């Protein structure tokens, strides 16, 4: 599907972001340089017991990426392709850390293409310095009192420390 050269391209980067990590930020910031607008689609995640509420995850995403004027965070529930359509976006952005991610994301990309042939998926290989970071590991390390300062931005670190302090 071709589009006029002047048409703005909106990309969607989805996830639970519990919490938003420097790996997520790496992919979002790089996508923000490639696309006119990037929407961080923060999943409600009814099926997960999240550390942060949806509102907290949305606020942290907006705060951590406040220096990117073409990035905004919105909640979503249901199929990502339906959210992409509702936002008039054309691209889904996914970050890849490993071969395991590639296998899963390729399958999801194929299914999304089946459901919404007009939507493309772009894979961004995570930068080497943040390739090892996952939200799950960050949560676990924080809960056990470990240092996660090199894994998340300052606003997320402060929020994590508040959550961990509450739970102790």
Mean pLDDT across the residues is 93
- Total number of helices: 6
Task: Give the end-to-end Cα distance, rounded to a whole number of Å.
Answer: 54 Å
- How many E strands? 5
Give the overall form: globular
Q: Classify the secondary structure makeup into a structural class.
A: alpha/beta
Biggest sheet: strands, sense, closure? Answer: 5 strands, parallel
Order of H and E elements = EHEHEHEHEHH
Determine the fraction of residues in helical runs and give it as a percent range.
40-55%
How much of the polypeptide forms β-strand, as a percent range? Answer: 15-25%
With strands numbered from the N-terminus, the spatial order across the biggest sheet is 3-2-1-4-5
- Poorly predicted ranges (pLDDT <50, ≥5 residues)? none
- C-alpha Rg (nearest Å): 16 Å
């Amino acid at each position: 599907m071709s589009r006029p050269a002047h048409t703005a391209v909106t990309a969607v980067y989805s996830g639970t972001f519990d919490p938003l990590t420097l790996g997520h930020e790496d992919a979002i910031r790089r996508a923000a340089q490639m696309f006119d607008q990037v929407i961080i689609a923060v999943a409600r995640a009814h099926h997960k017991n999240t550390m942060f509420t949806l509102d907290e995850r949305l606020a942290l995403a907006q705060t951590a990426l406040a220096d990117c004027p073409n990035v905004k965070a919105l909640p979503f529930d249901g199929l990502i392709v339906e959210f992409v359509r509702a936002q008039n976006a054309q691209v889904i952005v996914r970050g890849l850390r490993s071969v395991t991610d590639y296998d899963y994301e390729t399958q999801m990309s194929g299914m999304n293409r089946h459901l919404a042939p007009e939507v493309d998926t772009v894979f961004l290989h995570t930068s080497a310095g943040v390739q090892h970071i996952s939200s799950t590991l960050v949560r676990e390390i924080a809960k056990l009192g470990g240092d996660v300062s090199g894994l998340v931005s300052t606003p997320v670190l402060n929020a994590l420390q508040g959550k961990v302090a509450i739970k102790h």
